[in-house]
Write a structure and sequence with these properties.
mainly alpha, three-stranded mixed beta sheet, two-stranded parallel sheet, 5 strands
Length: 106
């Protein structure tokens, strides 16, 4: 039996609305699979390189009050140092201001 006769027989047996639904579902599945492949290909592209950070002027404030005596002062200093290490070193101006019982420049 030829393919065309089989299709005609299937249409009569199943009915046109159900056949339309099957073809529609198959088309959606095929479109979804193609879309997933295209999405996977676009997500593997490399992001553009980060733009260089221009020179900046930064001024971290360090709390040196009595409440920072229990090791918190060391953590604050190392956090400020880590922050400054992530900056562009060429041309960046740094001023550190401490405050507590008195204010000063270091």
């Amino acid at each position: 039996m030829s393919l065309i006769l089989r299709i005609r027989k299937a249409i009569r047996a199943i009915g046109k609305p159900l056949m339309f639904a099957r073809y529609g579902a198959g088309g959606c599945l095929l479109g979804g699979l193609i879309g997933e492949v295209v999405l996977a290909l676009t997500l593997t592209a490399r992001p553009p390189p980060p733009k260089p950070v221009p020179p900046q002027a930064v001024c971290p404030l360090i709390d040196c009050s009595v409440s920072m005596d229990c090791g918190n002062l060391g953590e604050a200093k190392s956090a400020a140092q880590a922050f400054l290490n992530r900056r562009n070193p060429s041309g960046t101006r740094v001023s550190v201001v401490s405050f507590g019982s008195r204010t000063g420049r270091n």
